[in-house]
Description:
- 32% of the residues lie in helices and 30% in strands.
- A six-stranded mixed beta sheet has the order 3-2-1-9-10-11, with helices on one face.
- It has 200 residues and is α/β, with parallel strands linked by helices.
- Strand 5, helix 5 and strand 6 form a beta-alpha-beta unit.
- The protein has five helices and eleven strands.
- The chain starts with a strand and ends in a 9-residue tail after the last strand.
- It has a domain of 133 residues: Purple Acid Phosphatase, chain A, domain 2.
Amino acid sequence: MKVGVVGPLPDDGSGAAILRDAASFLLLDAAVDQVVFLGDGKTLDPVIDAWMAELGRDGEDAFLEQAAKLAIEGSVEAIHALLGRDDVAARLGAIRKLPPPPTRAIELIDDRIVLFVHDKAVLDEEDIANASVIVYGRSDESVVKRFGKRAFASPGPLSAGHVLVLEPGEDGLTLALYDVSGTPLVRETLGATFGKLTVA
């Protein structure tokens, strides 16, 4: 599973535009399977709700009504536009929030245990010992730091304009920082933890 990560939004709600840019890059260009939001759900929900409303997805009934009307009297371009907006709305369903603090979220990506948390200060030794990658939101800057077989990473605050992508591959798990326009900034690969087994 390929996972995108975005950092916290400002509390004043000023990060709506950059969240859209980040989500668009991750979901459409980077083709991640899900996006993990490392901030407070109270700042995320209004942005997603407003975006869904603009896409005409206030509810399934509204979409079906528009689709039925366009099927009868709409142009090909209008039908394509509706389906495009519906595709974006469906992809927004791949954005996940962390549970309320101090709870953490855990994901198994390939053969790695990845721990997602807003503030890494709530973690104890056992949390860190059991995880291969610790991804946290509360940070003044974007960072990817490797310590032996373990890594710590943060996209930083979303206002910095950076996102993180975790992608499994044959060489191991890659952690890559990008700016929201898609420019790669940092790339680190944690080698596979298990060797390949050959049976003679």
